[in-house]
Design brief:
Blueprint: H1 6-12, E1 31-38, E2 41-43, E3 47-49, E4 51-59, E5 65-72, H2 78-86, E6 95-104, E7 109-116, E8 119-124, E9 141-147, E10 162-167, E11 170-173, E12 180-188, E13 194-201, H3 207-212, E14 222-223, E15 227-232, E16 237-244, E17 247-252, E18 270-275
Parallel strand pairs: 1-4, 3-9, 10-12
Antiparallel strand pairs: 1-2, 4-7, 5-6, 5-8, 6-15, 7-16, 8-9, 10-11, 12-16, 13-14, 13-15, 13-17, 17-18
Length: about 280
């Protein structure tokens, strides 16, 4: 999976399918999984039953963190996959990324709803850390066992008024987002891995100002960057709760397909919206 640096997220800001209201197959989340993030470790339960799961990332550290959820293939070795990820090998095989929380700033929390089937999983944070190492290489990687429970698919997710479709390379927003709390379905309909970054643009900040921002200087051109949907492979979906203030927002996918390819936002996978 492509690593995400602070500068990459900033740069991403530069850059329609029908709403997913499901019928009786949709279900309210049956379980809540709380993942606490620190520098550089996760605290979380070792297991939980299969079903529709609300994953809450609570950032108790001093840096921004994410939690990306990957399900191992049945034939994959957990030890091999974890050693490969810890060695910061972006294209580790034998694992399917199913989503997660893209970002929780220090002292904040964010949630996503996922349909987790039984199997072996890993939780990682792939943000860049000290000395150019990803957080997962510094210890932010943890195994999770999902035991047999409810039979679920992406159609088991709760109803959401708006769907954001991640395709190659476009963001399709089915209906306008509004201020306040709302559930939004995120679905990867493309052939490549995607995610969704979202941040509120401050005041009249321009594209040029955002591009030149170092991620630290004040006043910052971006704020409210907690939330979003972490990396998911084709066919995967999640539901996230957005709590938006009025203003302009930047949405983007900053992942790439590896091998020196361009990040997806440079291929058109970005948007700016106005929330009222």
């Amino acid at each position: 999976m492509g690593r995400i640096t602070a500068s990459t997220v900033i740069a991403a800001v530069l850059a329609g399918i029908p709403g997913a209201i499901h019928g009786p197959t949709a279900a309210a989340p049956a379980h809540t999984l709380v993942v606490s993030a620190y520098e550089y470790t996760f605290q979380a339960p070792d297991s939980l039953p299969a079903g529709v799961v609300t994953m809450r990332l609570v950032n108790r550290g001093t840096k921004a963190h994410q939690v990306v959820v990957g399900r191992l293939d049945d034939s994959s070795s957990l030890d091999r996959v974890m050693r490969s990820l810890t060695a910061d090998k972006a294209r580790t095989g034998g694992i399917r990324w199913v989503g997660g929380v893209e970002s929780a700033l220090a002292g904040e929390s964010s949630e996503t709803i996922l349909p987790l089937t039984s199997g072996r999983y890993v939780l990682i944070c792939s943000y860049d850390g000290d000395h150019g190492l990803a957080h997962m290489a510094l210890g932010m990687i943890r195994s999770l066992v999902v035991t047999p429970g409810s039979l679920v698919t992406t159609r088991s997710l709760p109803a959401a008024q708006t769907t954001i479709a991640l395709s190659d390379y476009h963001l399709g927003i089915s209906s306008p987002l509004h201020s306040g709390k709302q559930l939004v379905r995120i679905v990867n309909v493309g052939e490549h891995r995607h995610h969704l970054f979202i941040g509120r643009i401050v005041g009249n900040a321009t594209t040029d100002e955002i591009m030149k921002w170092d991620g630290k200087s004040q006043p910052a051109p971006l704020q409210d960057m907690s939330g979003g949907a972490a990396a998911m492979d084709p066919g995967q979906a999640s539901v996230i709760e957005m709590d938006l203030k009025p203003g302009r927002y930047a949405l983007a996918c900053v992942l790439s397909n590896g091998g020196g390819s361009k990040p997806h936002y440079l291929l058109g996978m970005h948007d700016e919206i106005v929330v009222r």
